[in-house]
Amino acid sequence: MDTLMKVWPYLKTYRKQFYLGIFLQILSVIASVVEPFMFGLILTELASNVADMIQGAAGAGINYERILSLLVIYFIRGIIFHTSTFGANFFITESIQYMTYDLRQDLIKKINRLPVAYFDSHQIGNILNRLTSDVESISNAFQQSLLQILNAVLTIFFVFIMMFAIDWRMAILVSMIVPLSGLAARYIIYKSQPYFRQQADVLGELNGFVQENFSGFEVLKLYNQEKRVYEEFTGITDELYDVGFKASFISGNMRTVLAFITNISYILVAALGGFFVLQGQLSIGNLQAFTQYTWQIANPMQIISQVTGLIQSAFAAINRVFEILDEEDEDQSYSLELDQAITGQVSFENVSFSYQADQTLVENFDVNVEAGEMIAIVGPTGAGKTTMINLLMRFYDVNEGRITVDGKDIRDLNRQQYHSQFGMVLQDTWLFEGTIRENLRFGNLEAEDAEIEEAARATNVHDYIMSLPQGYDSVIDQESSNISAGQKQLLTIARALLADPQILLLDEATSSVDTRMERLIQEAMDELIEGRTSFVIAHRLSTIQNADRILVMRDGQIIEQGSHDELMAATGFYNELYNSQFDQ
């Protein structure tokens, strides 16, 4: 019930359609339940007429007028049944589809509100599985099961009313047996539910594994890791088989158990009802109706058993989806508006930070960057270079100290306004499926074609674009596999420059560019960063010799800083790093 209540707020928005569908479903069930009683009346009338004829009663014969009136009522009942069934299906389907639509919308909005730390700590494939497969499981379960469950419950309720109206003694007998079905179903659900939950979790793990390994398929082939991947995949699928078998097998036994209980009740009703007919306490038509009602109870119980697995899968999916929706949002509180562009003065003041509580990465970090400075950050892997950028972008908040821009603590600023002041180019390029023009305009949605071309020329990618058959309208495929890694990097640089940011962040921006293109980019960057504060993370030390200041980091601390010439003259760690790249 708690799981269903998580979804109810989404369904409640469309409660008019939902309640109308339920009302029509009630009419449909009533019309269905009346059917055996109508047949019983016709059968009783025919049996009475035949008995009078056999006994030779005066005026004996078939009462066609009464039978015809009963058939007319039966026909009207059929119209009500089919019309209300159609209407119930339409309105409930509409409300459920709208509910699913809203759930998807809230999920994508939630994804945009989650902090970067969430994606760093969760497998992307697993998140995608919750956004796609789990939401679809919820939709299918409600769409396929809700009407069936509602129909089953209402049918059992109204059938019992008709049973008690026909013969209370036999109705009590059946009512003593039916709870056994409920208890059996509840026990089976209790035993199988944990396995459905495990099945959903393992399926998410499997999707994440496939997404992760297929995205690096070339590397797997290069290092001949197919066997290892196959073994890991087999291990996950073995676990999925194990929990899937247990979930399906246990829940699948429900139908057999319920059918057995139903057969027992049918035999008892037939025996007791036959005795009452012989005693003259029950008409043959009512016995026929009662036995048919016994099967009408059995059918809903079997329907419940059939959709149990789907429902349990949906419950597991609901919990997994709401694990995302219940996550804490990225802090959006602020006390200051950026009413004008920043100048780009940045200060790290006694900053300490750790991704894990027991593992401090940056401690008592201090640095002051003047507006318009080009700051290069170098150091060995794990020194804290990218962490410094993550903190500056406020993808993570500092544990201690503060970071200021133009003297304002960045935690006090409107996050979206703050991010709009930055341009970023990462080592791992990201382009979406679409034209080159659309990808470049992503940096500035208001940019004119002339501005796009100017940015492309500045980063020396215009000539490449024009060499393509469709020029700026050439389409980049989903994986960006139809252009080279170097050209992708150039496009991302052009995109960042088109945004006209006050602060540039470049994390190994030239890592995928050959030496000739690297020189062209450096020339363009020297002109474009004029008047802007820029932070450049680089392993190629030859690319940052013209930086205003170089910060040399190790173990989360700045151990040296100065210009290239000053650091080379100091013959310290930077000198050692630089010379190690040119030993040959």
UniProtKB/TrEMBL annotation:
It comes from the Bacteria. The keyword Disulfide bond does not apply. Signal peptide: none annotated. It comes from Atopococcus tabaci. This is ABC transporter ATP-binding protein. GO terms for molecular function: ABC-type oligopeptide transporter activity; ATP binding; ATP hydrolysis activity. Residues 20-313 form the ABC transmembrane type-1 domain. SUPFAM superfamilies: ABC transporter transmembrane region, P-loop containing nucleoside triphosphate hydrolases. It is found in: Cell membrane. Residues 346-580 form the ABC transporter domain. InterPro entries: AAA+_ATPase, ABC1_TM_dom, ABC1_TM_sf, ABC_transporter-like_ATP-bd, ABC_transporter-like_CS, P-loop_NTPase, Type_1_exporter. The chain crosses the membrane at residues 20-43, 71-92, 146-166, 172-189, 256-278. It holds the Pfam family ABC_membrane. Keywords: ATP-binding, Cell membrane, Membrane, Nucleotide-binding, Transmembrane, Transmembrane helix, Transport. GO terms for cellular component: plasma membrane. It is a multi-pass membrane protein. The keyword Cell cycle does not apply.
